[in-house]
């Protein structure tokens, strides 16, 4: 199939210019970019789309995301991460395969409507991976799917001494062994990795402190054997940094380094509480960082030193994290938040990050963390394109396109979205799957999910005082 996009005003991300011209798309790739006035007469396509009056940008990448949380909106709390985690795990116990399938599609609809064409899904429910991947296949989005590996519970890492009544409940449910997780991953890789050139498997250690040395060894083996990238949470809170220094020689970074995972394949979400020498080590090893400004603020985790990372030339992208961190899955919001947070903490305005820096993070750097060529309007790249309708108050005047995208656009101007040359949204209607049916199913099961969570929530509340004690 071929598509000719005519009269396109393009933010190509190949440089900082806004170009005008025509695009020829064949087999999901950008075949030609014709400057304005240079469209040859022999150029024919199956479909011709007139983009006059629209701004075309490359699809964005949500580089840290938890799809299951789309069913947990409204369960936010006033707790910091270590306590909040008790409750998000409890809510997760109520989710069936059907729930996970629909959670993925709900998130896909929200992301597509906001110009996101690919994501890294750090996925905690490994037994429901099949349902999630089937949903991603329907959505036609790019996904790097990273099921979480962990075998060290938070209470063990945090040295919480529970009473016997709680210990007995934990004894009845053991985490999967490293060898079991390896077998699960190998089966998943054989059936899903690189399927339709849109689904990729990543190795997803939950966090270094939640993995034994043996589990991290399995992560390294899978990465090396199957040439897989690795994705993990890293030093999100000061509590993790403090207890990590007690638990491991050279802290959590040392634990990760001894496992052989500090390399260019690793992307680390959050990275809020790194010491200067740890930052230098990650930079020297080629590690990428994913900044999650909204969830870090809502959970009171701190502000990642993004300006330091970028000054050192480290790749930095953006993530929306979980819905029940009070976030929406739009990178327009995250670009704006990231820019404001860094400026608020830097008095030397000449070093402030710019709107173009944010677009690089939201479009180019996130795409670079996933296989394939995405994130630019350039010959040979995937035709992941977002069409913004300029007939709106946001675009009534155009003084600086890059700055208006970051400071003023919120996703509401997006009219159509294309992934690998296929329309997934046309004139604000999702066309890759039936969004209305998904919403109806989710609503029908809402009461059942709430009822089935009661026991797990009660157990979380039983543990809560012991976790809160670590903050005193």
From TrEMBL:
GO MF annotation, one: hydrolase activity, acting on carbon-nitrogen (but not peptide) bonds
InterPro entries: Amidohydro-rel, Metal-dep_hydrolase_composite, Metal_Hydrolase, MTA/SAH_deaminase
Keyword field: Hydrolase
Domain Amidohydrolase-related span(s) in chain numbering: 55-424
Protein name: 5-methylthioadenosine/S-adenosylhomocysteine deaminase
């Amino acid at each position: 199939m071929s598509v000719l996009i005519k009269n396109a005003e393009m933010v190509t991300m190949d440089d900082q210019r806004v170009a005008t011209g025509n695009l020829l798309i064949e087999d999901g790739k950008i075949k030609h970019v014709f400057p304005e006035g240079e469209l040859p007469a022999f150029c024919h396509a199956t479909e011709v789309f007139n983009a006059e009056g629209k701004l075309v940008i490359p699809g964005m990448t949500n580089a840290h995301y938890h799809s299951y949380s789309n069913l947990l909106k409204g369960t936010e709390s006033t707790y910091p991460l270590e306590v909040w985690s008790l409750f998000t795990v409890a809510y997760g116990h109520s989710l069936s395969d059907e729930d996970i399938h629909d959670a993925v599609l709900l998130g896909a609809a929200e992301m597509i409507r906001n110009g996101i064409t690919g994501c890294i899904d750090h996925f905690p429910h490994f037994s429901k991976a099949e349902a999630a991947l089937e949903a991603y296949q329907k959505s036609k989005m790019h996904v790097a799917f990273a099921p979480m590996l962990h075998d060290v519970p938070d209470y063990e890492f945090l040295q919480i001494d529970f009473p016997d009544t709680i210990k007995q409940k934990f004894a009845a449910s053991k985490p999967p062994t490293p060898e079991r997780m390896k077998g699960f991953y190998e089966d998943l890789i054989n059936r899903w990795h690189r399927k339709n050139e849109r689904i990729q498997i990543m190795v997803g250690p939950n966090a270094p402190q939640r993995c034994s040395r043996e589990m991290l060894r399995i992560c390294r083996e899978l990465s090396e054997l199957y040439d897989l990238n690795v994705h993990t949470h890293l030093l999100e809170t000061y509590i993790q940094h403090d207890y990590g220094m007690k638990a491991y020689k050279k802290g959590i970074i040392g634990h990760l380094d001894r496992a052989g995972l500090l390399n260019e394949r690793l992307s680390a979400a959050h990275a809020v509480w790194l010491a200067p020498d740890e930052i230098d080590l990650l930079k020297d090893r080629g590690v990428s960082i994913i900044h999650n400004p909204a969830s870090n603020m809502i959970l009171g985790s701190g502000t990642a030193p993004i300006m330091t990372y970028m000054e050192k030339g480290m790749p930095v992208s953006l993530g929306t994290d979980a819905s029940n961190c009070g976030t929406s899955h739009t990178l327009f919001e995250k670009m704006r938040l990231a820019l404001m947070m860094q400026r608020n903490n830097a008095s030397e305005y000449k070093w402030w990050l710019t709107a173009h820096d944010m677009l690089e993070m939201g479009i180019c750097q996130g795409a670079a963390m996933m296989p394939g060529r995405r994130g630019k309007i350039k010959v040979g790249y995937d035709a992941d394109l977002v069409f913004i309708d300029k007939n709106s108050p946001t675009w009534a005047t155009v003084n600086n396109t890059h700055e208006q995208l970051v400071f003023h656009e919120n996703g509401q101007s997006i009219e159509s979205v294309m992934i690998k040359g296929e329309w997934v949204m046309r004139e604000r209607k999702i066309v890759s799957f039936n969004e209305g049916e998904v919403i109806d199913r989710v609503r029908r099961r809402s009461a059942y999910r709430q009822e089935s969570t009661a026991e797990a929530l009660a157990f979380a509340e039983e543990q809560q005082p012991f976790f809160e004690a670590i903050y005193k």
